[in-house]
Amino acid sequence: MTGSALELRETPKPEWLRQTRDETSTPDDDAGAGVRCAACGGLLTEPDRACERAGAHHHRLTNPAGLTFEVLLFGAAEGCERRGPAIREHSWFPPSRWTLAHCRSCGVQVGWFFDTAGEDSGPGSEAPFVGLMADRVRIEAPGASH
Contact 52/73 with Cβ under 8 angstroms? Predict the structure, then answer.
């Protein structure tokens, strides 16, 4: 997860992110909507929590071992839990430290948490966020069933 290997990929926003809720929508209209664990279907976060860093929501990132990941960024993911220590080395988003993110339902690693907790919160520091591996999640639009 070296900062120098950050490769941004310009991608248009996916259809589910471009959709806006109709003012007459009811909670039932959103049944099934969410970003879910591909392994168990557990809800990880909501599509409207998508965020951007370095100008993009979708990143293609390579770690020091040469493994490449398609990563989608979200401002929060309550369906994920942190595992392991916060690590500063090889962060894709310096000065953020990274921690493994696992599905709360089944325990599969689905990505990484990034935050600057304990760092100088001056200019350039950003709110915490999570990067989810695109091949470990399933994104369901409103009205979809899981």
Answer: yes
Q: Is residue 131 within 8 Å of 72, Cβ to Cβ? A: yes
Residues in the chain: 146
Paired tokens of 59: 């990143």
Task: Render pLDDT for 30-79 as a digit per residue (tens, 0 to 9).
Answer: 456 899 999 999 999 999 999 999 999 999 999 999 999 999 999 999 99
Among 118, 120, 116, which residue's Cα sits nearest to residue 95? 116
Take residue 119 and report the two structure tokens written for it. Answer: 């760092």
Can you tell me the distance from the alpha carbon of 106 to that of 132, in angstroms, rounded to the nearest whole number?
A: 15
Concatenating the DSSP letter of every residue in 75-129 gives: S--TTEEEEEEEE-TT-SSTT-EEEEEEETTT--EEEEEEE-TTS--STT----E
| DSSP 8-state code for residue 13 | P
Burial class (CB in 10 A: 0-12, 13-18, 19+), 142: middle
